[in-house]
Specification:
This protein is an alpha/beta fold. The chain folds into 2 domains: 69 residues; 109 residues, D-Maltodextrin-Binding Protein, domain 2, CATH 3.40.190. Helix content is 58%, strand content 18%. The protein has 8 helices and 5 strands. The protein has a 5-stranded mixed sheet with strand order 2-1-3-4-5. The longest helix is centred in the N-terminal third of the chain and has 23 residues. It is elongated.
Length: 185
């Protein structure tokens, strides 16, 4: 009786996590755990056939199908530079950069457009980061705020700039566009 109650409460927790998850991939993983808990509950209720079916189909096959379809959901890689100063790559600095208002606004911007923002911290210089093909947006801290560097051909960078202009989020950010031909030189 206690095990069933704990399982049901845990299932409710994972159902809420699925509903309130901000990242689609996290929601799929939470849904898979919910399905495994359902299979466990079927075992507790002496329904092994249903448990096997739920485990194989619900948490196995369906999760794989969701994850395969999410591969089409674009991941947008945002590089945050420490400008070659390894002493700045401390947990305190990383936490500070993660919680800056501009970074929160940028993450929120991409999530609203159903992009998955992937933030990576790099010790590359700005020139190296702009030439690195995996970085879609490069963020650098400056004295008066932060600067966001990206391709001049990126419509997303244009939308991001418009969001900061129109909504007046209070973030001190400077959008800098770079010509793609210059990056390759």
């Amino acid at each position: 009786m206690i095990v069933e109650t704990v399982t049901l409460l845990t299932m409710m927790l994972f159902a809420l996590l699925v509903i309130h998850s901000r990242m689609l991939r996290q929601a799929v993983i939470h849904l898979a755990v919910f399905s495994l808990l359902t299979a466990f509950l079927y075992l507790l209720l002496a329904a092994p056939e249903l448990a096997i079916a739920e485990a194989a189909i619900g948490s196995g096959l369906v999760t794989l199908l969701y994850l395969a379809s999410l591969k089409r959901n674009p991941v947008y890689t945002i590089a945050v530079l420490a400008e070659g100063h390894s002493y700045r790559m401390t947990n305190a600095y990383l936490g500070y950069m993660q919680h800056m208002r501009a970074m929160r606004d940028i993450r929120h911007f991409f999530r609203r457009r159903e992009y998955e923002p992937q933030i990576v911290f790099s010790e590359k210089t700005l020139e190296e980061a702009l030439q690195f093909p995996s970085f879609d947006l490069v963020i650098r801290e400056e004295k008066e705020g932060i600067s966001a560097h990206g391709s001049s051909q990126s419509y997303i960078l244009e939308e991001l700039e418009m969001m900061f202009i129109i909504h007046g989020t209070g973030s001190n950010i400077n959008i800098v566009r770079h010509d793609v031909r210059m990056e390759g030189q």
